[in-house]
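Quick check before the chapter quiz. The format below is the same one you will see on the exam, so make sure you can read both the input and the output lines.
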Amino acid sequence: MKIVCPCGTSVSVPPSRVGRTKYCSKVCKYRYRVRPTGLSYNCTAENPGQFQHREVLTGERHPSWLGDDVGYRQLHRWVASVKIKTGRCEHCLDNAPTQWANKSHEYRRDPIDWLELCRKCHGKHDSGDNWGRATARYGEAVQRS
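Here is the expected output.
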């Protein structure tokens, strides 16, 4: 449905808003609106509102950034936010569910140092001399996750 604002602008509104919407914008609403007492609104400045746009601090600029002192789960969450899973293992090229595996077993914040492997290949990658490196660095919390 179309309504005509007092300023002359034609505005289309959904049927549920007919009768309740009378103005094309907030500016017109306060320009042409009159209180029941007959007084009109006189807006001299625009209200910036409660939510002002602030720069979002992420990564190293965030005050809570821990760098390489981050925990096991947080490191894996960071990898998931930086890299996108394809759903395909990088070793066997199988389309099985994948996990993030660390190439160097040093657990650094370097996106290049992470592989997307299926569970079977991830187990092979972490076996041998590399078995238990995550537990040694992060403690028993790794076993429960």
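If your answer matched, good. The chain has a mean pLDDT of 80.
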